[in-house]
Design goal:
The complex is a heterodimer of chains A (674) and B (308).
Chain A: H1 2-6, E1 24-35, E2 38-50, E3 55-59, H2 66-73, E4 82-90, E5 93-94, H3 100-106, E6 111-114, H4 128-138, H5 146-155, H6 158-162, H7 175-192, H8 195-208, H9 216-226, H10 231-238, H11 244-254, H12 260-263, H13 273-285, E7 291-295, H14 303-320, E8 323-328, H15 331-337, E9 340-345, E10 348-354, H16 355-360, H17 365-373, H18 375-387, H19 393-396, H20 404-407, E11 410-424, E12 431-445, E13 449-453, H21 460-467, E14 475-480, E15 483-484, H22 490-499, E16 500-503, H23 517-527, H24 533-546, H25 563-575, E17 581-585, H26 593-610, E18 613-618, H27 621-627, E19 630-635, E20 638-644, H28 645-650, H29 655-662
Parallel strand pairs in A: 3-8, 3-9, 6-7, 7-8, 13-18, 13-19, 16-17, 17-18
Antiparallel strand pairs in A: 1-2, 1-4, 4-5, 9-10, 11-12, 11-14, 14-15, 19-20
Helix pairs in contact in A: 4-11, 4-13, 7-8, 9-10, 11-13, 13-14, 18-27, 23-24, 23-25, 24-25, 25-26
Chain B: H1 2-28, H2 34-39, H3 46-55, H4 62-74, H5 87-122, H6 127-141, H7 144-158, H8 172-202, H9 205-212, H10 217-246, H11 248-255, H12 260-269, H13 273-301
Helix pairs in contact in B: 1-13, 5-6, 5-8, 5-10, 5-13, 6-8, 7-8, 7-11, 8-10, 8-11, 9-10, 10-13, 11-12, 12-13
The chains are: A alpha/beta (674), B mainly alpha (308).
Chain lengths: 674, 308
Amino acid sequence: MTDSLTTPAFPVPQHHKHGDAPLLAVRDLEVSFTTAGGIVHAVRGADLTIYPGQTVAIVGESGSGKSTLAHAIIDLLPGTGKVTSGSILFNGTEVTKASKREIIALRGQQIGLVPQDPMSNLNPVWKIGYQVKEALKANHVDVSRVMRNTLTEALITDEALLEVGPNGDDLYLGRKAKKALLRDLRTALAGVRGVDQAQAAVDAASAALVVGATTRSQVVAILTAAGLPDAAATVRARVQGSDATDRVAGLLSEAGLVDAERRATQYPHEFSGGMRQRALIAIALAARPQLLIADEPTSALDVTVQRQILDHLHGLTEELGTAVLFITHDLGLAAERAEQLVVMYRGKVVESGPARQILAAPRHPYTKRLVASAPSLASRRIQSAKAAGVQATELLAPTGGDGVSSVRAEVLRVENLTRVFQLRGARPGSHTDFKAVDDVSFQLRAGTTLALVGESGSGKSTVANIILNLLDPTSGKVFFDGTDMSTLGRKDLFAFRRRVQPIFQNPYGSLDPMYSIFRTIEEPLRTHRIGNKASREKKVRELLDMVALPQATLRRYPNELSGGQRQRIAVARALALEPEVIVCDEAVSALDVLVQAQILTLLNDLQAELGLSYLFITHDLAVVRQIADEVCVMNAGRIVEQATTDEVFDHPQQDYTRELLEAIPGAKLDIFGV
Amino acid sequence: MAWYVGRRLLQMVPVFFGATLLIYFMVFALPGDPIVALGGDRGLNPAVVEQLRAHYHLDQPFLTQYVLFLKGLLHWDFGTAFNGRPVRDLIAAAYPVTIKLAFLALAFEAVFGVVVGLIAGLRKGGFFDATFLLVSLAVIAVPVFVLGFVMQFVIGVKLAWLPTTVGGDVSLRTLLMPAIVLGSVSFAYVLRLTRTSVAENMSADFVRTATAKGLSHSRVVTVHVLRNSLIPVVTFLGADLGGLMGGAIITEGIFNVPGVGQALYRAIQQSEAPTVVSLVTVLVIVYIFANLFVDLLYAVLDPRIRYV
């Protein structure tokens, strides 16, 4: 099996329309990093082929070498990274042997890069427009065509100028020309139609004409449709071409940014994450490269935004005929977006082929595990398994739907929770109120899991902080075990902390790097003066067993552990005080899928064993499917839908919930033939 | 923005009163009688002493002296030094010299610190980097007066490239050596700050994106690395300007520069309260304005900073 995989035998798709020469051919590539601990081989003998216009996805967990491979293609390996052997042939250029000048010519102009984290990939001190314009200038994209146009006009007839088709005509509409054309349109229509009707037509045309992106022949079509007599002649007279500023606005509009002309004059910090990613897409596509490398382009974004951006990117690259190398850790996403999949594991390509084929019949053991644990796909499998009557009992039992859950005793209840933050205004003393949490009520029953789902900014973490008593509500009450928390004194509060414990998102930040693992887990016991030294040590050892970590871990420090191991430590620490409720704030969001699946299973087992109740806060509906009994969907501080997990997934009541469900990558894939 | 500047200027009022009162008190509390000390070993006629005391209000209680000083300020009268010269004239004579010296030192440390720091940051771990890290360490470790005397001896006496002292001839040529000595420690700090900042920014995500756009290396460095790296450096330089003016006492002593440092030193020795307080108050105000200027410049360099 492996033999057939390591040979560069990528089945060329039959529907291929761009000829047979590959755009990119990576053969037997080895990349290594020199570290203090020796040489690390990040990529080991990888092969990759991309044909013009094709979309190929590399899937793998963090550290699998997928990003390293992508960066090697445009010679952007960080630090001590070096290509030690193998070849990268791009469009006839051997990248590994190319000169600096050739590489710079390649970057941007032929290969574009959409980086991973939109927050850190734009220079904070330059305006968005400037950063896009830079990409145009660096790649010698000729945007000041005014002069050339004048020259051409002098040489050839006017008709010939306008005959250029929509694809070949790269003379774009400029700001001034747009204004003038709209004025012409208004004058022309005012006489014929009524003032209101004329205005409506002008507004429609104004929306359709995008400065810097609409080509001249498109302008003619739009104006003819709007009712301008002899549009062609008018356009010929008016449209002289666009300058660089126009083109920047056009590129940003193309990437899906609304009101691009004004947005181009803003700074990155005035943009949301999704808008920044659109700007980065505009930069990457500015010089119309033949290959676009998209390195986890949306993993830092909310699911609904993720979907919009990927849809847009897909449409755009399709239209431009750009080949895409899509890098992701999400198998569902990859399968949905790419024709070909390449699965990487520990620097090696372990499997490659058509996306659906790999998902339906994974051959390599790693791919099999990956397919089994992908949350977006796994949730579908649980569903199908349930239909077959082989449900995982502790996972689905409390959901019964026939009132089982209502029998359970309530452990936590929040009533009409509201939290208002004051945002400082532009003048001293002035401020605006921001309702982060707005009239939220729900209850958590003993031994069950309630998921609080929402996008970033929906107020779900604020709710968690209020429940953990780290933040006071503006109004509303939290009842724990029937007691109103606002009435608790210092002592009672201390006792309460013992019964409710948190697990936070980032296992790298939530463990003290200076504390050994033993001290980390023992600390809550010591704080609450439980047992003596010997009994505490015994307890810590038990806890380690419970989270399935070897006893040797005790003497180690957080930086010596992997992300998954650290999150297990965080679970052990939360369990140390034998709490009744655990608040998991995005507890698995930062982990790779396989690790995520392990932690979720662990949490499930512990719940069955110890009768724990979880308040599970997440943005990931796929995870909810795997762990929650009941779901509260939050949007803009309010709970918009509240029901059992099955109801929410099978019969969502609200549009917003449906939107979230739609956005789960891979949700639409029907691989398992259910 | 206007609100912010207004608030900052308002903050100067308590700083002004606090600083002047404190300094006035400290000079008042200095041991010894300044008038008696004026006479030296021979001693003065008691009548003359009395008359001088009354003239400088030294017979009044502390608070009265202070209020009288403030009252004088209202009339733009900073008081009179013991040699009969109005303090205002003293300020007018000493400050331009020190300002020239401080700005020259600032220019030296900014230009050389940033250039050397940039090269060191780009070649982190290389020979150039290691050499200048060592140099900067040496400069920080060696006291200013040692550096001053050594330069005086080598450049001024042995090589005779530059004059050893300034004296009455205040010009760019004579001030060059004192400025280098004055700015040397800050030069080392600017170098290290720039180096760290550049090295950090070189591995920033947005720099990689800029490279991926197809920009040339020099453009990436100047447009995307340098400007971002200068933000902390500018903050340091602004705060340092005040320090350079106040810290010039030793340098001015070594090179005999007729500036604020020298005047202040003399006034403290003679316990001339109005002179000391006036000189220091102007220093405090310069310091506050320099800081305000830097904070505003900070907002120009970094658009994320918005003052409200």
